[in-house]
Amino acid sequence: MPMTDTRRAFLQIHACVLLWGFTAILGKLITLPALPLVWWRMLIVVGALALVPRVWRGLRAMPRRLLLAYAGIGVLVSLHWLTFYGAIKLANASVGATCMALATVFTALIEPKLAHRRFSRAEFALGVLVLPGVALVVGGVPHGMRLGIVVGTISALFVALFSSLNKRLVEHADPLTVTALELGAGTLALTLLAPLMPAIFPAFAGPLLVVPTLHDLLCLLALSVLCTLLPFTLSLVALRHMSAFAAQLAVNLEPVYAIVLAILLLGEQRELTPWFYAGVAIILGAVLVFPLLSRPQRIGHAEVLATAEAKELAE
Q1: Which residues does 111 contact at the CB level (< 8 Å), separation at least 6?
Q2: What's the pTM value of the predicted model, to 2 decimals?
Q3: pLDDT at position 298, please?
Q4: How many Å apart are CA 282 and CA 104, to the nearest integer?
């Protein structure tokens, strides 16, 4: 039987989500602290995008006001990635992925204000539904990992902020150009933040210009190319042939993939209690119901690839 465009798109979007699921695993495997890890990841992606003529044409054509707006969003993106990998370092990949599932809940509460749309009581109910799951997750991890949950929750909040702002501006520029601009601004922001980090949050701090070990370099290349650039390209193709509901449902499965991978590859189930997984089930159950509550939407551009870890692709 020949493969239809819809079936091919379905496989492509799930391949994207699976690759994004590896971001938490690679974050745990890389020995660099959170700050240099994120800095190197962003720098590699920006360096790759700088080789694309389309990016430079888009930057030259962009109004200064819009350029500054995207740059500001890029700072939020860098803080999201910093706190996401910080949460993984402070806890583990399963905890980091679970916290990212909260991004959908925060977005449901924040997006109406930032994107100028009506507030949804159904989406607010989604936020209330996940609270018992959060309580179980907190109670199901060792005491030493709870700071990781706090940092991961802050990371999910950053996701809600920058993804909502991106949705508001997404029609105004080419997605690849926006990605390069946002990640470039984020790289610069982290460079300026680096000298202050030992005083602000020593657990995240680390020298930026130290050359990574061969192990870390290979993982960083996989993180940047296989888990960032490749899924971005695939998602741009896939979203032309599938509904917003199907895309949202697939992306909401990312924490499931990440937690399963963490169990299979890192054996993290030995660090966590059944209460943790009961809480995860409640959170993910609510998040997977989210597309049913959302209004039908069209799909235009994919969101920028800076929204890699558990974000909405449909606008």
Answers
A1: 117, 160, 163, 164, 167
A2: 0.86
A3: 46
A4: 14
Calpha distance 146→37 (Å, rounded): 22
In a domain, 315, yes or no: no
| Pairwise CA distance, residues 254 & 252, whole Å | 5
- The reply to whether 313 falls in a domain is no
Is 245 a residue whose pLDDT tops 70?
A: no
pLDDT (0 to 100) of residue 151:
94
CB 84, CB 42: distance < 8 Å: no
Confidence band for 7, pLDDT divided at 50, 70 and 90: confident
The tally of domains found in the chain comes to 1
Domain encompassing residue 136: 5-307
At 295, the pLDDT band (50, 70, 90 cuts) reads low
pLDDT of the residue at 86: 94
Q: What is the pLDDT of residue 314?
A: 36
AA identity, residue 277: Y
In a domain, 314, yes or no: no
Pairwise CA distance, residues 46 & 303, whole Å: 17
Please report how the helices 214-221 and 5-29 are oriented relative to each other, as an axis angle in degrees rounded to 10.
Answer: 160
The gap between the terminal CA atoms of the chain, to the nearest Å, is 32
Does the residue 312 lie in any domain? no
Which range among 28-37, 123-132, 273-282 shows the weakest confidence by mean pLDDT? 123-132
